[in-house]
């Protein structure tokens, strides 16, 4: 069995402002660094073999904090796990989108990556890592939308309607050719 721990990056200033980040390469804020330290501490009590991240800075920074705490080198960056492209809405808040394009902006073609594209890209990246390290325990630090899209492809029927919180961990296991989800959007490390 191969186990994948999917972690959403720590918080950024744009998260707090409600701005769509997409492929914009924002760093973690101070809270994001604290969140990364908290998930790293939690994971230090578990055995993990590899850690990968998306190639965007906020995910790389989160992965570096975790890797340092676990004593693992960062095994690589996965462009396939980069956040879904936000097109013309990157950098905007909901109120700015409504002001620019009206309340029906979601039905317009504003250049966003489709859910289908994200699902295919993300699930392929996870399957490639699984094939590279069969039977291992692998952490992948990425982003909320691409992680949820990937999960739709890997674990059909899984309820992914709840947005993933910053530094949440979702754990999936592949055995007998199929993926199952053992844990979804867990942030126990952020309590207390």
The whole-angstrom Rg is: 16 Å
Per DSSP E runs of 2 or more residues, the count of β-strands stands at 6
* Alpha carbon gap, first and last residue: 33 Å
Order of helices and strands: EHHEHEHHEHEE
Mean pLDDT: 97
Overall body shape: globular
Supply the number of helical segments: 6
Task: Summarize the amount of helix as a percent range.
Answer: 25-40%
Largest sheet geometry: 6 strands, mixed
List the uncertain runs: none
Strand content: 15-25%
Major sheet strand order = 3-2-4-1-5-6
What features would you highlight for this structure?
19% strand, 192 residues, 6-stranded mixed β-sheet, alpha/beta
Quick rundown:
This protein has about 190 residues and is of the alpha/beta class. The protein has helices at about 15, 30-45, 55-70, 95-100, 115-130, 145-155; strands at about 1-10, 50-55, 75, 135-140, 170-175, 180-185.
